[in-house]
Amino acid sequence: MDTRTATANIGVVGLAVMGSNLARNLASREGNTVAVYNRTYARTEELLSEHPEAGFVASETIDDFVASLAKPRTAIIMVQAGAGTDAVIGQLVERFEPGDIIVDGGNANFHDTIARESRIAPTGIHFVGAGISGGEEGALHGPSIMPGGSAESYETLGPILASIAAVAEGEPCVTHVGTDGAGHFVKMIHNGIEYADMQLIAEAYDLLRTVGSLQPAAIADVFARWNEGPLESYLIEITAEVLRQVDPATGRPFVDIVLDQAGSKGTGVWTVQNALDLGVPVGGIGEAVFARAVSSKPAQREAVQRIVNSRPTVQEADASFADDVAKALYASKVVAYAQGFDAIIAGAEKYGWDIHKDRIAKIWRGGCIIRAQFLNRIAEAYDENPDIATLLEAPYFAQAVADGEAAWRRVVATSALSGVPVPGFSSALSYYDSLAVKRLPAALVQGQRDFFGAHTYKRVDKPGTFHTLWSGDRTEVEVPGH
Ligand code: NBP
């Protein structure tokens, strides 16, 4: 079987758009010799003929592919998540030796990554789940990479990944996130935050259009201006581009000819499902997932539209309305990111990962969809004090939210009075208020729970656990052993 020399320091299995681009990126960096393999050889041949400059070491069989890899053999799998990934893992595990490294660069569910790692670990082969963000362009020019797996495997893998990752302020956007599924977990949270960010931006657009009476092209100018300040980010930048686009067929703004039903591929849902399991409130992400779901219920929307006779009068916007919206957007964004990082902290605790929050913020500064200046502020906050209870208490963000608070409230109130749906803005504000008020009505909920289910409660004035005899004489008893 082994007739060829092992010349490649890295291999890529799966040469559809993501794998091809990642392989080309790897080949373009000095020091890398890239082995490639795809189940259907025609796809490999296509890549070879289109990119002779890459100097790929191509194989028609998996045996030749494995033989072309220098030890420790390192292969990145970029095939369809699920059964395809398992099939390729099986083929590599059969042929690899202890110390070799299998990297799954696809969009795996982190629970699958944990299971795969524990299945493969006894063989002595390293299994690394790596979240790769940035889509096709990122894969080709520099993604943000979130590898999990063992620290030992990262010694080999780290420099290879650093060679192809995006670079932000001189630093490659890759770090060893933690063991087993940590990388795919953090990638999942990245996508959840992306949902929240997009929803908040969409709400800002809706307000500028409905209340601010601006046309899409004018709103594009507003977003372009915002992109030069603290809101600077890839998502704000592309929003301006999308809003400026005119439909060539009708001459209408592009945004007006697109059906207003947003889809999703599932990572936002995963984030919310896992946050629920972890007991972490990620309302910003949840509202964003639900907003897409509501948009995609045309029958319900039409039913309510049929029975609604009149809509509220849209409030008048004054000259500072756009600035108010910018401040509300910023404050809501701080909340969404604070919640996302809370989910990372809770995941790290539950699954035993030593995750450095500041490093995660740094590797998201380039290559990925949520890349933004803003992440520097998060990195600084966690760098200064990794143990803050929430990003909202970090001095920079506390000040930013305080500065924008009045505007945030005006925007949410105006939205409610005008009938503009802002689930992201309003849930973020409610979350902030829930943390900021001295007393929450949770006390009443505890009373209700004790009434119907004897769930007990604690008192504010003395230690212990108590129950009121609601169906008896309503005296209070102390419940021992709690
Ligand atoms: P696809 O997800 O479309 O998968 C196609 C590739 O999987 C082909 O190479 C195909 O081989 C291979 N494959 C399949 Br399908 N079943 C296989 C099996 N049983 N054994 C071996 N190979 C198999 O490719 P993609 O769009 O390039 O995405 C690759 C990965 O990257 C996926 O996990 C995807 O979710 C992820 N992704 C990430 C981003 C991002 O932004 N991070 C974007 C897009 C995709 P064939 O040629 O023989 O059919």
TrEMBL record:
SMART domains: 6PGD
EC number: 1.1.1.44
Alphabetically ordered keywords of this record: Gluconate utilization, NADP, Oxidoreductase, Pentose shunt
Active site: K187 (proton acceptor), E194 (proton donor)
Leader sequence residues: none
Positions of the 6-phosphogluconate dehydrogenase C-terminal domain: 183-471
Residues the entry annotates as binding NADP(+): G14, L15, A16, V17, M18, G19, N38, R39, T40, V79, Q80, A81, N107
Catalytic activity: 6-phospho-D-gluconate + NADP(+) = D-ribulose 5-phosphate + CO2 + NADPH
Binding site for substrate: N107, S133, G134, G135, H190, N191, Y195, K265, R292, R449, H455
Enzyme class: oxidoreductase
Gene Ontology molecular functions: NADP binding; phosphogluconate dehydrogenase (decarboxylating) activity
Pathway: Carbohydrate degradation; pentose phosphate pathway; D-ribulose 5-phosphate from D-glucose 6-phosphate (oxidative stage): step 3/3
PROSITE patterns noted in UniProt: 6PGD
Pfam families: 6PGD (PF00393), NAD_binding_2 (PF03446)
Any GO BP annotation: D-gluconate metabolic process
Its job: Catalyzes the oxidative decarboxylation of 6-phosphogluconate to ribulose 5-phosphate and CO(2), with concomitant reduction of NADP to NADPH.
Subunit text: Homodimer.
Record family assignment: Belongs to the 6-phosphogluconate dehydrogenase family.
Protein name according to UniProt: 6-phosphogluconate dehydrogenase, decarboxylating
Source organism of the structure: Saccharopolyspora shandongensis
Lineage, top ranks: Bacteria, Bacillati, Actinomycetota, Actinomycetes, Pseudonocardiales
